[in-house]
Fold ABC transporter ATP-binding protein.
Amino acid sequence: MNQPLVTCEHVDFGYENYDVVKDVSLEINPGDYLCIVGENGSGKSTLMKGILGLIKPTGGTLFVAEELKKSGIGYLPQQTPAQKDFPATVEEVVLSGCLGKRGNRPFYSRAERQVAEANMKRLGILELRKSCYRDLSGGQKQRSLIARALCATDKLLILDEPISGLDPAAIMDFYHLIRQLNQKEQVAILMVSHDIGNIIHQANKILQLKQTVQFYGTVEEYRQSVYGKEFLGGEE
Ligand code: ADP
């Protein structure tokens, strides 16, 4: 039977002595494509950090599948200018996704190099392996970072505002790629996005956050809900 990859039961997350996200319940199953939407400051990044294990729950229960605990979760952070100028080859950037599994060994193993190569192939960037990361286009950089994230695990990919900074053609290319990973390769997707007009056609579940969960359900249920109607406005 397929076990959930991540389960939150009435979970709270916060900083020091205040909670930013309260009473969140959700489940990410193999094959899911869950988008988290909400205004700025509603706690989306905090929830992601919690699921990634970067901050601990202050209440409730968070379950993460054993296989993800061992390998780490594939994560595509928001890109900062410093990351965009990273002086490394594509291959080095992708391989660094294996760091979570590497422990104290000083060199990458043969198996890790094979995983990195397979993921570069999967993302169509194998011929760019010796190119300098900072010379790539926005779309190629993003493919490299997705390949990197898949080196940790190909069960769940977490993306935080992934389309910011991409041009319209690269955005459509990105959605196509993610959909393929999700539908053909059963990679579960968890994405924070403001791009509701597009994600409504991509995701299967939506969670709308404003400190607590305002809505959690299927895309179809979201379209019918007061939140969906308000948030979607004239976007469709
Ligand atoms: P979103 O991703 O939806 O914009 P965030 O999770 O980034 O929301 O922020 C939610 C709230 O948590 C904000 O009020 C923000 O100031 C606060 N916050 C975010 N990060 C930290 C932090 N590291 N320390 C303390 N407060 C934080």
